[in-house]
Amino acid sequence: METSLILAAIAKPDLITFIAAAAIVLAGAFGVVASKNPVHSALSLVMTMFGIAILFIEENAQFLAAVQIIVYAGAVVVLFLFVIMLLGVDRREIFSREKLRGQLPMGIVAGVIALGEVLLLAKTTWATGAKASTGPVGNSVDNVTRIARAVFSTYLLPFEATAVLLVIAVLAAVYLARRVVVEHNEEEEIAVAIPEPDDSDFGVSISTADYSEDFENESDEEVIDL
Amino acid sequence: MGQDPLFLGHISLGVVLIVVVKVLVAFVALLVSVLLMIWFERKIISDMQNRIGPNRAGPYGILQTLADGIKLFFKEDLIPEKSDRFAFKLAPYLTVIPAFLIFTIVPIGGTVHIFGHVAQLQVADPPIGILFLLAMSSVAVYGTMLAGWSSGSKYPLLGSVRASAQMVSYEAAMGLSVAAVVLITGSLGTRDIVNSQMGSFFGIFPKWNIIRLGIVPFVIFVIAITAELNRPPFDLTEAEQELVGGFHTEYSSIRFALFFLAEFMNTISMSAVIVTLFLGGPDGPNLGGPAWIWPILWFLIKTGAFLFFYVWVRAALPRLRYDQLMDLGWKILIPISLAWLLLVGAMQVSKVYGFVLFVVFLIGGSVLYRAVSIGRDNDSDVETITTFTRIKFNDETSIEGSNEGDN
């Protein structure tokens, strides 16, 4: 039985890999929606990212797979976790009460439409004008080289524009994060920037996994002097 | 190009078996070398501190780690009541698995012929090669982060916030120095990187990347790796005086052992990666005997030298302060590695370009340094503390220092 399974896996590696990866992606996606705890949701998201990376590898898009892990799993979700841990939004939320009227049926309708759209696109050559194909276009040059050539020749302008946009975003974020109060110093007649006075001297409220069942109780948020 | 010769033909059961055997051998070898590494580290440090060190279990105490491991296995496994049980149990595995996976891309020798197949002495040679290292080291952040958070306790959380901030910051410098290697090799694959370093200049100097790239990316990579590993002098994560035990304070028994295992496994894997990227991997002269054995021996010697280096650094250097650590990463290592990457690129285009750029960098850098130091002297009393540093700041002295400056 087991040897025949292994033989089947060797005979049809693509199919087995696809089924396993798709199961991982779906389980992760379900976990994101279903978990009560935001940290568990973020972890499920990481699982989905890994499943998608496996799918990319199966399609011979190794570079995309690596970027998927480095950027999404390694940077974006880590930042999510930082925010959740440092800002303490890991309180259990109430999902039983709908925020919008008719949220559930509308969601189902939207989901069905999206699924139909994906199926339609997969069937037709409408989106890019070419049928979906797997594997590299030719065996002479590998994928990474192809992507590099495309990015630094054909798509150079969009690439550079994206880079500039990212630099602007970083600068803006740093500028917004600076909380500096400029006070007038009478003795030396120069503007001295001092940190904004804080109630708890340099205290940062950090919440841990310790959330009690009654979320109205605010005592589970701990103020730690750093 | 970058293709494992094992997978070129028809993939039969034999090929699958070879792959399985390679994975098993690598895993067992790594585990055994972790056992030896812990003993080695304790022995060397005790020599440097003029004491004896472990000397009871086995000859020269070489079985001490095994005894400790068995003891840890049979200790009571505690899970704190206020912990997040799922993440608490998951975290140790998230640190061990990337540590092992990093080792899989390292070429430890040449190629061998087994049962009519040509097999490379490395577990995997993916086309993305060294990007896999970056991916795995960014995944390793999760283990540390979740371990600290899920413990439901203050000190582990502070330790894990420190650790993950540190790992994320130093990844940039690490990636940039890896980019210099990739630039000169023209390929991401680790096998290609090693092959491009074979040969020598004038028959004397080896054509290793440490010489070809100038020594700068190598130094930056070693520093960034040390920070990435949370090893001394960058072991802020487990600063005992401040944080009890760091992010694994609440762990006991086998889960604690897994963190310990991951730390040493990472040290070995990263030493192997340094050797691969900058010291030619298994490259070295053949001194007679069977041809396949010398590359492996050279690889082991070079990796062992780096392991000794790490132990030495641990015994010799005091721990950095947190703000010094962040300054070193963001203000020194990243700008230098960026400039050096540009320089390597210019040298690839033409030597004239490269030297002109080098002079420009030298002049520009010294002007910038002078400007910054003048600016610092002029308004040393103007201290701006951003929210970012306020979260990270844990050093009372620097905050007091800034207050003195205000008056």
From TrEMBL, chain A:
Pfam families: Oxidored_q3. InterPro entries: NADH_UbQ/plastoQ_OxRdtase_su6 (IPR001457), Nuo/plastoQ_OxRdtase_6_NuoJ (IPR042106). Its EC number is 7.1.1.-. Keywords: Cell membrane, Membrane, NAD, Oxidoreductase, Quinone, Transmembrane, Transmembrane helix. It catalyses: a quinone + NADH + 5 H(+)(in) = a quinol + NAD(+) + 4 H(+)(out). Its main location: membrane. GO terms for molecular function: NADH dehydrogenase (ubiquinone) activity; oxidoreductase activity; quinone binding. It is found in: Cell membrane. The chain crosses the membrane at residues 15-34, 41-57, 63-88, 100-122, 155-177. It is an enzyme of class 7 (translocase). It is a multi-pass membrane protein. GO terms for cellular component: plasma membrane. Belongs to the complex I subunit 6 family. NDH-1 shuttles electrons from NADH, via FMN and iron-sulfur (Fe-S) centers, to quinones in the respiratory chain. Couples the redox reaction to proton translocation (for every two electrons transferred, four hydrogen ions are translocated across the cytoplasmic membrane), and thus conserves the redox energy in a proton gradient. This is NADH-quinone oxidoreductase subunit J.
TrEMBL record, chain B:
Keywords: Cell membrane, Membrane, NAD, Oxidoreductase, Quinone, Translocase, Transmembrane, Transmembrane helix, Ubiquinone. It is found in: Cell membrane; Membrane. The chain crosses the membrane at residues 12-40, 90-116, 128-149, 170-190, 210-227, 256-280, 292-313, 325-346, 352-372. It comes from the Bacteria. The keyword Transmembrane helix applies. GO terms for cellular component: plasma membrane. It is a multi-pass membrane protein. One of its GO terms (molecular function) is oxidoreductase activity, acting on NAD(P)H, quinone or similar compound as acceptor. NDH-1 shuttles electrons from NADH, via FMN and iron-sulfur (Fe-S) centers, to quinones in the respiratory chain. The immediate electron acceptor for the enzyme in this species is believed to be ubiquinone. Couples the redox reaction to proton translocation (for every two electrons transferred, four hydrogen ions are translocated across the cytoplasmic membrane), and thus conserves the redox energy in a proton gradient. This subunit may bind ubiquinone. NDH-1 is composed of 14 different subunits. Subunits NuoA, H, J, K, L, M, N constitute the membrane sector of the complex. PANTHER family: NADH DEHYDROGENASE SUBUNIT 1, NADH-UBIQUINONE OXIDOREDUCTASE CHAIN 1. This is NADH-quinone oxidoreductase subunit H. It comes from Acidithrix ferrooxidans. The lineage of its organism: Bacteria, Bacillati, Actinomycetota, Acidimicrobiia, Acidimicrobiales.
